[in-house]
């Protein structure tokens, strides 16, 4: 761009006989002036800056043409672009006021929503990935408030910044600095208060679960399958949220906890004819304790929920130690105190160095930074980059704990006291579709973790399903009298249906028959998870994972599909009764099953002999051979993919035929049949974007770069208008922050940049020419692709 300006300038010299020196001085002056205003070089203020430069030129008697001015402004646009992680730190110059103005932070297991209230108090909700209450709800540990006196709050110099490279939140005002961080390597949240003048600090623990409460009205959404949110209508109508407890008469600590005195587990198992399994299994809810300990040096209790400083000082350190353990409360407290003591024995400065090193390593695993050369595309590129970074940040903050990421809010839900809709007035435990995991939704954050190299974040998902595998094998034998395993679409974390999906009144109803028609024969989860495990193995080459997890799990899933349905007169499996996702409740030979088995079994056949013997491979090969033909339909003269050979009773807004593109990748850029797949996409009934809709991903797989770009920009530009944080997407179909929404856009962006099959990788299969990029992304075979894209040209590091 500088070259452009200089060439234009020289042309002017020749044409107008203007002294070159004075023009160069004028150009330099203009450049210096404009650089001073680079913060304003964006879509909204581009014309403003142009006008300011023109006025300056008139004042200084500098002649500048439209062409030269355009060259200069384009130069400044490039100069001002965001190109580093720090550029995407979230900075607020006014307090958040309430939880809708909160920032998320987490270490993978422990999370917090952090905000500053109008009076300067720092407040935050504390959460944990395994804080499951008596009803099987994932709930908060409570709220903490930190107050400083004398109050130094001054909104004029207020700054709250989410510092992405360091994984911390920094608040400053009135000569006071408050730093919040959750140790990436230890189970502790730390709040460091520093002040230029001696101050006193007060820490208050707040909780809303003070007594046993009936969950009614919209709050019933927080427990799917019981109370007023059940499909069968024959399960418990009255459900209670139990009260929390405090350890009383402490002198230097606050200890608050929830002890599950009840559990829905035993009745849930009995209803589903799994009492024999229950008799040999521990109750995963009963006597579970979760809570926290708060302490700070130089502070003492003035109440069981309040700590105050003994004396004014220039610095304070507040520690919050969350903890979950099943058993007696006394044992939980004893272990919690011991854990806190051992962590405090490590110098905080050393822990912080290691914490920052973890985050540095995380950000260096993978990245995608987009830029562009004009203001409109630049704004879009930065919006997409910000969304991608922040979604990955939230994945890291919630993805390394005792349970998988909850699609409907993760561990970053907030109260609705200030929300302006039908859900107004509910506490921070609330989320729609609470309790269970829905595979259709749960899977989407995890698909995006492969290309980003965040393999450690996938472990909780694999662990949950592997722990439930023995139960699902037992259920298969009990219900259907054959081997293998299937998994429900809607599943409690221990592996069963929700009560109100399965149905509680079982009189004259066969074991295994599910009353909820939306999930009656919806068993895709095991099949798609099998593909995800295969991809994980392809990327990591982890033979131990393949031996202990991949082969045992996938073998049981394929056995189920081999044995569950009868063969027809043609020797082919007749998938009937069946359904095509949640959308068509009645289907024969649904496409997702046929394509899924073809792809998964085909990949299992390519495993090395030491992982899968000849006998197993012979069975898998026969299973593929026994599959019916791929469902197709005719639209005029066009052949299209179909949801099933026959299908009816439509009840949802999915495109089942598109499962051949994503997740199963039978059709993609560079593969046969791509034109039929594109025609199918064009004719699809549902073209929505946002939430769990996957059209953006499928656009990328089909090489539809412009369509994918528009959808990604739209998704990353829209978050819940009730919230301030620009990655609290939702609520869409579910709840805020909607993890599907950001993950679909992230995955689509990755697939625009890189697609893979068995051994092949394609770079830039659906890349828009408007975007330049700097990237580092993982691929199969433990490979990492690092490079740049400029004007559509790819340059890989280390390759010419």
TrEMBL record:
GO MF annotation terms: alpha-L-fucosidase activity
Keyword Transcription regulation: no
Entries under InterPro entries matching the protein: 6-hairpin_glycosidase_sf (IPR008928), 6hp_glycosidase-like_sf (IPR012341), DUF5703_N (IPR043757), GH95_cat (IPR054363)
UniProt cross-references to Gene3D superfamilies, sorted A to Z: 1.50.10.10, putative glycoside hydrolase family protein from bacillus halodurans
Organism: Chitinophaga polysaccharea
GO biological process, one term: carbohydrate metabolic process
Domain DUF5703 per the UniProt entry, residue ranges: 92-368
Membrane-spanning ranges: 21-41
The protein's name in its UniProt record: Uncharacterized protein
One Pfam family linked to the record: Glyco_hydro_95_cat
């Amino acid at each position: 761009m500088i070259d452009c300006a200089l060439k234009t300038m020289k042309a002017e010299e020749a044409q107008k006989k203007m002294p070159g020196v004075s023009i160069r001085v004028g150009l330099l002056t203009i450049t210096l002036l404009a650089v001073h205003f680079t913060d304003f070089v964006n879509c909204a203020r581009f014309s403003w800056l142009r006008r300011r430069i023109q006025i300056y030129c008139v004042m200084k008697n500098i002649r500048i043409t439209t062409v030269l001015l355009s060259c200069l402004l384009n130069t400044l646009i490039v100069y001002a672009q965001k190109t580093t992680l720090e550029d995407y730190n979230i900075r607020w110059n006014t307090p958040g006021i309430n939880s809708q103005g909160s920032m998320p932070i987490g270490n993978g297991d422990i999370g917090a929503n952090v905000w500053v209230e109008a009076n300067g108090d720092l407040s935050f909700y504390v959460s944990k990935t395994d804080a499951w209450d008596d009803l099987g709800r994932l709930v908060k540990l409570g709220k903490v408030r930190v107050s400083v006196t004398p109050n130094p709050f001054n909104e004029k110099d207020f700054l709250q910044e989410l510092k992405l490279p360091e994984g911390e939140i920094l608040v400053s005002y009135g000569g006071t600095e408050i730093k919040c961080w959750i140790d990436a390597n230890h189970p502790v949240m730390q709040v460091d208060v520093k002040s230029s003048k001696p101050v006193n600090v007060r820490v208050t623990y707040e909780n809303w679960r003070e007594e046993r409460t009936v969950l009614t009205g919209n709050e019933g959404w927080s427990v799917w399958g019981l109370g007023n949110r059940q499909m069968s209508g024959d399960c418990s109508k009255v459900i209670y949220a139990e009260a929390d407890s405090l350890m009383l008469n402490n002198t230097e600590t606050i200890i608050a906890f929830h002890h599950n005195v009840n559990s829905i587990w035993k009745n849930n198992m009995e209803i589903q004819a799994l009492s024999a399994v229950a008799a040999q299994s521990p109750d995963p809810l009963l006597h579970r304790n979760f809570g926290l300990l708060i302490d700070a040096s130089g502070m003492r209790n003035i109440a069981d929920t309040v700590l105050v400083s003994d004396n004014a000082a220039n610095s304070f350190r507040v520690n919050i130690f969350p903890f979950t353990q099943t058993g007696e409360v006394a044992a939980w407290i004893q272990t919690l105190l011991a854990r806190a003591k051992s962590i405090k024995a490590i110098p905080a400065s050393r822990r912080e160095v290691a914490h920052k090193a973890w985050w540095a390593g995380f950000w260096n695993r993978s990245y995608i930074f987009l830029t562009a050369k004009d203001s409109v595309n630049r704004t879009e590129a930065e919006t997409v980059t910000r969304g991608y970074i922040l979604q990955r940040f939230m994945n890291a903050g919630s993805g390394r704990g005792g349970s998988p990421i909850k699609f409907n809010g993760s561990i970053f839900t907030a109260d609705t006291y200030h929300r302006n809709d039908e859900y107004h007035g509910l506490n921070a435990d609330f989320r729609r579709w609470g309790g269970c995991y829905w595979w259709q939704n749960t899977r989407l954050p995890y698909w995006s973790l492969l290309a980003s190299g965040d393999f450690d974040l996938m472990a909780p998902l694999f662990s949950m399903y592997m722990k439930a595998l023995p139960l699902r094998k037992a259920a298969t034998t009990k219900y259907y009298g054959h081997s293998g395993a299937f998994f429900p679409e809607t599943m409690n974390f221990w592996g069963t249906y929700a009560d109100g999906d399965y149905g509680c009144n079982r009189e004259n109803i066969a074991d295994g028959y599910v009353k909820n028609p939306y999930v009656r024969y919806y068993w895709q989860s095991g099949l798609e998870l099998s593909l995800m495990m295969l991809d994980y193995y392809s990327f990591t080459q982890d033979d131990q994972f393949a031996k202990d997890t991949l082969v045992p799990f996938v073998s049981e899933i394929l056995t189920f599909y081999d044995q569950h349905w009868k063969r027809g007169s043609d020797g082919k499996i007749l998938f009937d009764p069946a359904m095509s996702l949640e959308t068509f409740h009645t289907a024969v030979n649904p496409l997702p099953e046929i394509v899924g088995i073809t792809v998964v079994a085909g990949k299992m056949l390519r495993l090395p002999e030491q992982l899968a013997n000849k006998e197993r491979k012979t069975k898998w090969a026969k299973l593929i051979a026994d599959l019916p033909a791929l469902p197709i339909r005719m639209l005029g003269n066009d052949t299209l993919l179909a949801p099933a050979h026959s299908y009816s009773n439509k009840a949802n807004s999915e495109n089942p035929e598109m499962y051949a593109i994503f997740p199963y990748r039978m059709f993609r850029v560079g593969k046969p049949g791509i034109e039929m797949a594109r025609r199918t996409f064009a004719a699809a009934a549902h073209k929505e974007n946002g939430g769990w809709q996957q059209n953006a991903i499928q656009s990328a797989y089909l090489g539809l770069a412009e369509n994918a770009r528009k959808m990604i920009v739209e998704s990353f530009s829209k978050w819940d208008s009730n919230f301030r944080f620009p990655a609290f997407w939702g609520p869409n179909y579910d709840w805020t922050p909607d993890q599907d929404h950001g993950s679909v856009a992230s995955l689509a962006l990755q697939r625009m940049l890189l697609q893979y099959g068995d051994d092949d990788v394609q770079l830039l299969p659906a890349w828009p020419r408007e975007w330049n990029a700097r990237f580092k992304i993982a691929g199969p075979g433990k490979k990492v692709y690092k490079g740049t894209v400029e004007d559509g040209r790819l340059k890989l590091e280390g390759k010419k």
